[in-house]
Amino acid sequence: MRNIWKILIAIVLCFLIFWGGFYVGQKFSVLPEGFLNFQSNFFTGKNLSLFWEVWNILNNNYIKKENLDQNKAFYGALEGIVKSVGDDYTEFYTPDEAKIFNEDISGKFEGVGMEITIKKGLVTVVAPLENTPAWRAGIKAGDVILKIDGQDATNLKLQEAVRRIRGPKGTKVTLTIMRDEFSEPKDFVIVRDVIRVYSVRYKNINGIGYIKINNFGSNSVLEFSNAVTSLLRDGVKGFILDLRNNPGGFLEAAVSISGWFLKRGDKVVVEDFGGKSPQRIHRSQGPSILLGYPVVVILNNGSASASEILAAALRENNNVKIIGTKSFGKGSVQQVFYLSDGSLVKVTVALWLTPKGHIIEGKGIEPDIKIEEEKEEKVIEKAIEIISSQI
């Protein structure tokens, strides 16, 4: 009998402890000031019910019921919340879009192998990747994709266009293409394949190492290391670092690659959180193997984010010359938050500052020597001339 009482007392104590902790947690929860009030006043009760009011109005009155998709409406609402901040780089990705985002970072996916953009509401080919299905099918830079598998492709979001074009290896996709030289659109039937996008390309140009970094992805540091090792084995005396049309990528990759050129401890970039927390300084960790080699960096308007960080770090620490045209000016830091259903939110959390404290955002990096982008040969010739004068 005594044991039963002990058990009952223990159960009561557990109950009191649990509810006491729950009450304290609710009353003194460590959350941003005003969060609970904002949450209770806006995202619950009357205001949240407006979402369902609108949905019910559509559901009961809209003539094309087949176009109503509750899942799509829900994600659209989330996208609207994120878009409301008015920042082009703070974005919401549905699970399908997040999958594409992760594939792009990994550098490996199944599709046709071309870079596309949205220009004046039209899906436009930036360039087909060499030796890919798109390249072999005759797709060219500047081609406008009017239809994807017979469905209108105008006014599509970029991620939606990419999602429709990509697909499993061995399957077909039909792209209806309009080109300046065409009198009418033509269909291109392309068989999808595994596409491997290499972040780094390189070659030896008469004793000077040419390295083109296309993006700062998960394999960039290893590919860059392999490129440098091969070029040094060839006995090159200087390096051209081509960052044209490099939209950026992982900060860590840019910092790591900068370490090949800078002294250990040199400042690479500063993250400024607008006073919300102390600035974060990223410094070179070496290996400094290329320190002392003549280097020229090439930029253009497509060079953004991590590309600008690397270029500024080399110029402000080592007085490396930058040639080409002014860079894009994306000097902000995005952090990716993965959600429970596979979707994600990419949020701008800080601004980049160069080692000397200059703001990149909206300003870009002016080259030391301006050479128009279309003069491809002159850009490389000038880089070689600068390096040759320092050897």
Distance between the termini: 95 Å
Q: What is the count of structural domains? A: 2
Number of strands: 19
Reported CATH architecture of the largest domain: Alpha-Beta Complex
Whole-number average pLDDT?
A: 85
CA radius of gyration is 27 Å
CATH class of the largest domain: Alpha Beta
Q: Can you count the helices?
A: 11
**CATH homolog superfamily of the largest domain:** 2-enoyl-CoA Hydratase, Chain A, domain 1
Low-confidence stretches: 1-40
- Shape label: globular
CATH topology of the largest domain: 2-enoyl-CoA Hydratase, Chain A, domain 1
| Biggest sheet features | 6 strands, antiparallel
What fraction, in percent, of the residue positions are helical? 25-40%
Structural description of this entry:
The protein is α+β, with helices and mostly antiparallel strands and 391 residues long. The protein folds into 2 domains: 89 residues, Pdz3 Domain; 191 residues, 2-enoyl-CoA Hydratase, Chain A, domain 1 (Alpha-Beta Complex), CATH 3.90.226.10. The chain is built from 11 helices and 19 strands. The strands form 4 sheets. Strands 3, 4, 5, 6, 7 and 8 form a 6-stranded antiparallel beta sheet that branches. The chain has a 6-stranded mixed beta sheet with strand order 10-11-12-15-16-19, with helices on both faces. Strands 1, 13, 14, 17 and 18 form a 5-stranded antiparallel beta sheet that branches. Helix 10 links the parallel strand 15 and strand 16. Helix 8 runs parallel beside helix 9 and helix 9 runs parallel beside helix 10. The protein is globular. The N terminus is likely disordered.
